[in-house]
Design goal:
Length: 406
Amino acid sequence: MAISILGSTGSIGRQTLDILQSEHLAPGAPVLKVAALAAGASNLDLLSQQIVQFEPELVAVPSDSDRESLRASLADYFKSGKKTEILVGEEGLIACATHPAVKTVVTAVVGFLGVKPTLEAIKTGKTIALANKETMVAAGHLVNELAAKHGSKIVPVDSEHSAIYQSLEASILKAQAAGKSLEQAGEVEKLLLTGSGGPFRTWSEEAMARATVSDALKHPNWSMGAKITIDSATLMNKGLEVIEARWLFSIPAHKIEVVIHPQSILHSAVEFVDGSIVGQLGLPDMRLPIHFALYHPQRVPSARVPRLSLSELKDLTFEKPSFSRFPCLAMAQEVAATDDSSACVLNAANEIAVDSFLKGTITFTDIARTIERTLSAHKPIKAPQLGDILEADRWAREKSVSLVAV
Ligand code: NAD
Ligand code: MG
């Protein structure tokens, strides 16, 4: 079976390839061929090493000059007769997402950039191992519509959604067999979406207003790309995950409860209508949900996923989130209940605000203010189609750029 990785040099992309290295495969694990890799311009050296190691048929980079640099560093590889086609831009990214030999596409790019290639991959019926949560946030309704039409399966990579998916799988299959949505099948009371609380879980609002970029990049449990690490500090990550869960599981937003669990051992759970809570536990290591998504529906042995020993666990604690100290979570929960273009606007404004914070243009608490002001100026569109989503994203970026520049 062949796979494609969009964002192969990032945190999720690298961990996906780590699982697939032949010397890391457990005995009996099926070999997955890497047919296509796409990456940004920031780490072309790593991309070139990945190409030499995995010999993909197709690679995509953002620009012609990136392609020239990559070709130059791969001179020996090509001289030895290896064949890898290198495409550029959005067209290249979409070609990687729709490569005919590929069964599963791992969407590990950051942000709205993932929307078009993911939708195109869905239209060709591929399985999506979905890490790029922003696609589900901005275009969840469209993703579901197209996935149903083209028989494409979406398997979450996000650890919380993987935990919920694993806890719910029997209910999902039963609902599908009965031709019902999970909500119509009536077994689920609520989804319990856990989150560590991030580096500022115990910080006051005043302290957060003075937080530096390096404070916000110190995540207590997970090592991830910069954007999602800042989202974890504002708790926007948890908010985006509420919207992601709403669409992935077709569950109304009011049935999704965020629970703060600082140890990140229970990755999320489902409360059923009979009062039973079923969850999934593991060490905080993304290779576990990536491995699950790559091999789904099989359970395959893993030589790379570190094991959790229950008898060595000490405290597992749970608490309610503070919506007043973390307004991004409050805004995202509100938006999750609308099912309209507000989610796309929230996502775009957040991308601009996080980028501005990382560049030192705005303070940590300005992130929420920028998003709030952008959202309040937006006129929402119900059941947005692709054109509406692209326009809402464009408008929200323009609006928030003007706000952060003031
Ligand atoms: P990252 O910043 O580490 O990696 C992003 C990847 O996208 C890099 O390979 C980068 O080169 C690539 N990229 C950038 N511009 C590109 C372009 N124009 N064309 C093609 N590729 C381009 O990000 P990450 O932490 O791996 O996160 C990826 C996605 O997975 C995000 O949506 C994030 O929310 C989600 N996610 C990440 C984690 C995690 O542990 N890192 C956990 C859950 C979900
Ligand atoms: Mg997550």
